[in-house]
Design a protein that fits this description.
With 190 residues, the chain is mainly beta. Helices cover 14% and strands 39% of the residues. It has one helix at 161-186; strands at 2-3, 10-11, 22-31, 36-44, 49-57, 67-68, 70-71, 82-86, 98-103, 114-116, 120-128, 135-149. It is elongated.
């Protein structure tokens, strides 16, 4: 049995696998109102502990978006198939505080991989009541796409528009100079 230090709740036997916790990244998470979610968290499957939560949601038609950094204090059980986060820990009243719930179809492990999210009413962004044990029904926006993965998102930076325009102008200028040079060198000299 595993005893979670923060909640004092005992769980079934710890999953076997690598001893080190892994970083899980949100991948392609989209909400029903047009907002998105991105970021990461660390999950230790051997001890059922979430840490280093750093998830940001963007505004949509039903919610303004938020930045999540803490596990929901109203959750007394630590599940390996739900991420339940709030913007900050230690508040005395969580009324109206954003709440992010991401349910996964498969158990999170320390082995990593990619795990699809439960879609619809299981994965959602909503608000807390005073203790954040249950959620207030509105505003709710549900997750309509996405997964969790241990593979970091692509870090290839995109050039800003002004840099692309400057690059295009430079290439055009180079090609004009090169054409003139070839024409001049092709002219027979006495």
């Amino acid at each position: 049995m595993v005893l979670h230090a923060a909640s004092g709740q005992s769980h079934g036997p710890a999953p076997s696998g690598p001893p080190n916790p892994v970083v899980w990244y949100l991948n392609g998470v989209q909400f029903s109102d047009g907002g998105t979610a991105s970021g990461s968290f660390v999950f230790d499957a051997n001890n059922f502990v979430y840490s280093a939560i750093n998830i940001t949601t963007t505004a949509g038609s039903a919610a303004a978006g938020a930045h999540y950094t803490a596990w929901d204090p109203g959750q007394t059980l630590m599940w390996d198939n739900f991420v339940v986060a709030v913007p900050a820990a230690g508040l005395t009243d969580y009324t109206g505080v954003p709440l992010l719930i991401l349910g996964v179809n498969l158990q999170l492990t320390n082995s990593g991989g990619t795990v699809p999210l439960f879609l619809g009413g299981v994965s959602e962004e909503t608000t807390c009541n005073a203790t954040c044990v249950v959620t207030v029904p509105t505003p709710v926006r549900t997750v309509i796409a996405g997964s969790l993965t241990t593979y970091p998102p692509s870090s290839v930076p995109a050039l800003p528009n002004w840099a692309l325009a400057l690059l295009g102008i430079l290439l055009l200028g180079y090609s004009v100079i090169e054409v003139r040079r070839r024409r001049w060198s092709a002219v027979p000299r006495p």
